[in-house]
Amino acid sequence: MKKTFLHLGLAAALLALPSACAAFSFGYVDAGKLFAKYSETQKTKTFLESEKAKLQKDLDTRKKQVSDLDAKYVEIAKKMQDLRDAKKEAEAKALEPQLRAQREALANANSELQKFFEESQKRLYELEEEKMGGLSKTLDDKVDAVISRIAKSKNLEAVFEKRFCYFGGVDITDDVLAALNGGAAPAAAPAAAPAAAAPAAKKGK
Known about the structure:
By secondary structure, the chain is mainly α. It has helices spanning 8-15, 18-22, 31-37, 39-85, 89-94, 96-153, 173-180, and strands at 26-29, 158-161, 170-171. The chain has seven helices and three strands, in the order H-H-E-H-H-H-H-E-E-H. Strands 2-1-3 form a three-stranded parallel β-sheet.
């Protein structure tokens, strides 16, 4: 898209020249809409959501394991306290190795859970950067060719990005989308006839 879109400076220059603008037939596209509604963007988003769901499911499973370990730890600790309350110190003391092992298992599980969470976030970020970044580059290349073809069919002399078009112009966003997504672009509307050139001023006698 970068090669096809003209810079804001040129747009400003054209707007400053009424006679030039009158004869200048141009179009514009909404780049945000193109990217959002491009079929490959939708497929990529679906893929990313699927990967996110898989990681979330794994995370939930690990959380459940930590929760179970924690419940077991609390159960042993309560049992030891009940034995001590019942003056059964020897039986309570016999549970200390089990409680210690449970505490270590819980600490390790919590550490692994945190590590998995951080790695999952990093993986999702990198995956999105890779997929969306590659998609954006591919779309740029395709859009250049499609815009050029549609502009010629509509007799447009230039195509701007919507942000740089404050007034006038032909919106060809849907035409470009249709072509990108495999459909036929809408029929081109006849281009407005260029304004007649102003007659040359006569020299005074």
